[in-house]
Amino acid sequence: MSSRRTEFIINENTGKRLDAYLAGELKEHTRSFIKTLITQGMVLVNGKQVKAGYMLKTGDTVIVDIPQAEQTGLQAQDIPLDIVYEDEDIIVINKPQGMVVHPAAGNPDGTLVNALLFHCRDLSGIGGELRPGIVHRLDKDTSGVIVAAKNDVAHLSLSNQLKDRSIKKTYIALCHGNVKEDTGTIRTNIDRHPKDRKKMAVSRMGREAVSHYEVLKRYGQYTLLAVEIETGRTHQIRVHMKHMGHPVVGDALYTKLRNPFGVDGQLLHAEKLRLRHPTTGQEMEFSAPLPQYFEKVLDTLKEI
Questions:
Q1: What whole-number distance in Å separates Cα of residue 133 and Cα of residue 149?
Q2: 186 - beta bridge partners?
Q3: What is the phi/psi pair of residue 45, to 5°?
Q4: Positive or negative CA dihedral for 23, 38, 69, 103?
């Protein structure tokens, strides 16, 4: 990520707060954007990170690093979006099953990123040329809430929240079999499958993956779970459910068990997303209802 560095030397005692002073000097940016720069450590006074309310004194040196978005050659496409929430920093989408998040081999366009570029016109550049704005992913056939960053400062904040595990993500999964324990935690390492590079697997190597589950309803041969993940490893819930012996219904990659419901892809839905707003610091929760095809499966099970 590139940035533009600007330096200010305070020649007189302004008696101003740092954020107010910078708002006057950097008129092309909003005060909320400047405050986020300060909280993310991208503003230093005399070489040290300070708070937005720091009172400037004569002789202070203020250095501001403003992230510069990378240019992208991706095409903006007019693809309908189910927008849950949007402001100048973030946009939260209810992604449908079947939509790929970002361009990759075999999916050069028609992705969530292409749709976001059309809607937002600008996204953070930290994700690189093919993943602008993308902070986290959902698998193609997993539906539900996903957040994207509209500027680099918001992206940094959300990325840091993912690293310190303060972002909470809760999924709804319909799994094969009767999960006996009402609640539980699965803690393993997950790595690329040694023989099939399209798959992930529980491994002694790899990176730690932690999932907490709670039984919502039992349907005899199937169990409906709420799963909250601490980590965001590729295919984490799908791998963990298989590891438990209760793979997600419809997950053709991780189970050969029969899918009698006629749905394409796994019955896995990102229901809730909790995060701290990058600018205001406000705790926010977003949710998306189960898709109709998922509800229809559950209605069918009620009749069994």
A1: 5
A2: 211
A3: -115, 120
A4: negative
**Measured between alpha carbons, how far is 115 from 78 in angstroms, rounded to an integer?**
6
CA distances from 41 to 49, 117, 133 (A): 6, 28, 20
What is the β-pairing status of strands 143-149 and 168-176?
unpaired
H or E element in which residue 301 lies? helix 292-302
Name 115's Cβ contacts closer than 8 Å, sequence gap at least 6.
77, 78, 79, 80, 81
What are the tokens at 124? 């953070």
Q: What separation in angstroms does the CA of 163 have from each of 134, 135, 230?
A: 15, 11, 10
Q: How far is CA 67 from CA 64, 134, 246, in A?
A: 10, 16, 45
Counting every residue written for the chain, the total comes to 304
For the segment 4-43, what is each residue's pLDDT rounded down to a tens digit?
789 998 887 677 899 989 988 888 777 777 887 888 788 9
pLDDT in tens, 32-71: 778 878 887 889 999 999 998 999 998 899 999 887 655 4
Own/partner pairs, 122-125, CB within 8 angstroms, 24+ separation: 122/69, 122/150, 122/151, 123/69, 123/148, 123/149, 123/150, 124/67, 124/69, 124/149, 124/150, 124/151, 124/152, 124/154, 124/155, 125/1, 125/67, 125/68, 125/69, 125/70, 125/71, 125/72, 125/152
Residues involved in catalysis: 139
For residue 136, count other CB atoms closer than 10 A to its CB.
Answer: 16
For 222, residues 6+ apart whose C-beta sits below 8 A from its C-beta are 174, 175, 176, 177, 249, 301
pTM of the predicted model, to two decimals? 0.78
